[in-house]
Amino acid sequence: MLWRHKTLRQKEVRGTMAPKLSFETANNGDKLPEITRHITQEEIWQHAVTSFDVNPVHVHPEWCKKAQVFGLESTVMHGSLMFCLISTVITGWAYPVGGRLTKINIKLIRPVPPGSTLTLGGEIIEKHPVEKGKNFVVVEVYGKTQDDKQFAVARAEVVLP
Amino acid sequence: MDYKKELSKYVETEKQKTFFEENEWDFLKRGDKYEAWDEIDFTKEATTDISFEVKLEDIKNYAKGALDDNPMFLDEDYAKESAYGEVIAHPMISTAIEFWCLRKGMGDWIRTPGSRNPGMRWEFYEPIKVGDVIRLRTRPYDRWIKRNKYYLTYQMDFIDQNNAIKMRHWVTLILPKTRADLIKFMKGEHALEA
Fold first, then answer.
1. How far are the Cα atoms of A94, A152, A161 from residue A136, in angstroms, in the given order?
2. Residues whose CB is less than 8 angstroms from the CB of residue B169 and which lie 6 or more positions away in sequence, other chains included
3. B78: buried, middle or exposed (CB in 10 Å: 19+, 13-18, 0-12)?
4. Torsions phi, psi of A50, nearest 5?
């Protein structure tokens, strides 16, 4: 499952390993590389085990048919997996050069059932020259479904070297 | 479909095996005992008895479950040459630590079946690394009603073996209002309207 993304991921890494990324070279309007993930029930089960979040709304298809928590008869992807993907947009871009995510505020907009294909990306919207080692940018991150509907948005602060 | 059997296929780490053996995978098991929205005592705070001792397998497995194969989380040789100097945990490992530590007592409402996640906020002070032993200090932070939905936020401080706060997470969920509603949720009875 994870490794299914490897080719894609390697492309992302190549795109994000640009040695020139630094606070000096980062500018408002710069786009972060997009990532794409296809979400299946198997990946939701995997995330449930890895996060210890085995809420039936994610893992128990029969319970979901009855409960219809989001008005859906299916399970839904964990909010925490959405958080992971949002964060991956930042960590894949900034961590290879020693950048660091320091704050993030994520809003979830709509539930995501298995079978969805998600695309996430971001843009620098603010640049904060504070002092060396603490200079940071503010990044807006978005996540959208295959129908181009937003399922999450986030605002993150990222310290760049 | 036996969903527990499906889940068992993904169990890899020692912690996951323990969780499975103790039947903590079943959130319905003592769901009627979880804290309910209208019973939260805002004068209290607690530190978890259970701690999360971070092992390399925990970090690698979390990256796998996060669908993130960034070598910073997986490859010791790569990480050694990086600015971090060693493998670090995916920042969202906070979720695994919380569900590992908060099985009973203050904050166990995060396990409420049918709860909804409207989004959350974090501050990260230091990366979590192999060898860290994390406990959670939990305190009620806010509770509000919006469009007939009942929101609850706890502040979770991730405290390491040196009493340093590694990260802070404001955990928010939309919950059933009362214990009676919670039980209704557990049964899967019209949870949407509860």
1. 11, 23, 9
2. B94, B98, B120, B121, B122, B155, B156, B158
3. middle
4. -70, -30
> Tokens 């181009």, residue?
A148
Per residue in B105-123, pLDDT (tens digit) is: 899 999 998 789 999 999 9
Sign of the CA dihedral B151, B152, B153, B158?
A: negative
C-alpha to C-alpha distance for B111 and A55, rounded to whole angstroms: 6
A119 touches chain B (CB under 8 A): no
Rounded-to-integer distance, Cα A36 and Cα B31, Å: 35
> What pLDDT, on the 0 to 100 scale, is given for residue A5?
44
Average pLDDT, chain B: 92
ipTM value for the complex: 0.93
User: Up-side HSE of residue B9: CA atoms within 13 Å toward CB?
Assistant: 12
Instruction: Give the C-alpha separation, B156 to A90, whole Å.
Output: 23
pLDDT tens digit sequence for B119-174: 999 999 999 999 999 999 999 999 999 999 999 999 999 999 999 999 999 999 99
Say what the pTM is. Answer: 0.91
pLDDT > 90? residue A6: no
What does the pLDDT average to over A144-149? 98
* B120 exposure class (CB count in 10 Å sphere: 0-12, 13-18, 19+): buried
- Percent of chain B's residues with pLDDT above 70: 96
Distance from CA of B132 to the nearest CA of A (A): 17
Q: How far is A135 from chain B (nearest CA, A)?
A: 15
Chain A touched by B146 (CB under 8 Å): no
Report percent pLDDT > 70 for chain A: 88
